[in-house]
Design a protein that fits this description.
31% strand; 2 domains; 26% helix; Ubiquitin-like (UB roll); 6-stranded mixed sheet; Cytidine Deaminase, domain 2; 7 helices; alpha/beta; 4-stranded mixed sheet; 269 residues
């Protein structure tokens, strides 16, 4: 039976070898497309992304990588080109000098936000402290995790995408964004929240990846009080979360999780 194509996927013919039998069939694969980001006419970066929810990505990237608030982002223009996709941002004010440094931005691999930085001071960003946020029951993390798989349509077909989700304090999922890059997925989520007027301090985020330093920095920059990941954090991520007041959870499973910072925000069931 042919597989219907969905946004963010491409159909390819594959040979399936199972139990010694070889069959030819059509498969859906995750698309990975080069995205060139320009701001006020200046080229900033090229990275590999999933070609969907790009306006959300633009708003999130502008905040977490360029420090541009939603109200200072005047317009986002997405153009499909032969070579890939071009994303043009227009901002109310000129970009910071460091953002225009031609030696800062290098071609990125699936949205690594630190690629191209030349100095340690540029890499280790320390965001402001996050707000107090609501108390969250430990069971809410499991509720969100159980619901997430059903809201990853592209990954359900391809098995190749990360997801970032936003949940209410009771674990009800409000938004989910997917991308081949974990950083991109989180930027898309943050952008969707900005566009939708969702208060980042009103719930928590869940990501289907490890919790690296950049993921914590992006979450804290957006004002998220809690970030839960299904894999491990790094030591630098824990230190950063501890310093900015963010609750960092790793190894989230159906009946287990590990809290690495500010455990008091989570309440017993």
């Amino acid at each position: 039976m042919p597989i219907d194509r969905i946004a963010g996927t491409a159909r390819r013919e594959v040979v399936d070898a199972t139990g010694g039998m070889r069959t030819t069939r059509q498969d859906l694969l995750a698309e990975e497309v080069p995205l060139a980001i320009h701001a006020n006419g200046e080229p900033l970066a090229v990275m590999m992304v999933s070609p969907c929810d790009l306006e959300d990505f633009a708003c999130g990237f502008a905040l977490t990588e360029l420090g541009i608030a939603r109200h200072d982002l005047l317009s986002v223009d997405v153009q499909s080109l032969l070579e890939g996709i071009r994303l043009d941002l227009a901002t109310r004010h000129p970009l910071p000098r460091h953002a225009l440094d031609p030696q800062r931005w290098l071609p990125g691999r699936s949205g690594c936000g630190i690629c191209g930085h030349r100095h340690l001071e540029e890499v280790v960003r320390r965001p402001e402290s996050v707000g107090q946020g609501p108390a969250i029951a430990s069971s809410a993390l499991e509720v969100a995790l159980a619901a997430l798989g059903k809201q990853q349509p592209v990954n359900a077909f391809t098995g190749a995408l990360h997801a970032a989700a936003w949940a209410r304090p009771d674990g009800t999922l409000v938004l989910v964004r997917e991308d081949v890059g974990r950083h991109n997925a989180l930027d898309k989520l943050i952008g969707a929240m900005l566009l939708g007027g969702i208060d980042a301090a009103s719930g928590f985020a869940l990501v289907t990846s490890r919790a690296s330093y950049e993921m914590v920095a992006k979450a804290a920059t957006a004002g998220m009080p809690l970030l839960a990941a299904i894999s491990a954090p790094t030591a630098l991520a824990v230190d950063l979360a501890q310093g900015c007041g963010l609750t960092l959870v790793g190894f989230l499973r159906r009946d287990r999780h590990v809290v690495y910072s500010h455990a008091g925000r989570l309440t017993a069931d």
